[in-house]
Amino acid sequence: MTAENLSIANMAEGEDYATPPAMARQLYDAISHSTPTVLSGARHLIPIECPEPIGAGLIARMERVPFTRWHMRPRAIGTGAATCWLRVALAVGLLIVGFMVAREGIDMVFLMFAAFAAVGAVAATQMIETRNRRLEDIAP
Length: 140
Prior knowledge:
By secondary structure, the chain is mainly alpha-helical. It folds into two domains: 3-65, no CATH class; 72-138, no CATH class. Helix content is 60%, strand content 9%. It has six helices and two strands. The chain has helices spanning 21-30, 46-49, 51-64, 72-103, 106-125, 135-138, and strands at 8-13, 34-39. It has a two-stranded parallel ribbon with strand order 1-2. Strand 1, helix 1 and strand 2 (34-39) form a beta-alpha-beta unit.
C-alpha cells in the first residue's frame, strides 16, 4: 500500500479542553491524505461518547483496503483465540498445581508437567511449518 492510497481519519472532539479542535487542525495540516472530522458534543473519550462515527470511519477505511490485505483477519482471529486459551490455561493450571501440591505432593506436579510436555511434543510433530513462508502460500 502506497502513501497515496493511505487515508488517515483525524477525528477531534468538539468540546475537548485538553486537545481542542485547533490542535486536531494542526495535525490535519501536517499529515497529507488525512480527513478532518470534528464531533460536536464529545469531550475526550470519543470512542465511548460517539462510537457510531468511529465505527463508520473504520469500516469506510477498511473497505478501501485491497482484498489481498484481508488475509490478516484469520491470523488475527487465531492469535486472539490462542491468547484467550493461554490465559484460561494459566488460571486453571495454577489452580490444578495448587490442588495437586496440597493433595499429592510436588512429585505429582512434575509428573503432570512431563505428561503435558509429551502431549505437546506429539502435537508439534503434526503442525505445519510456517517459517519463511508467506501466509498466502500456507492458507490461500
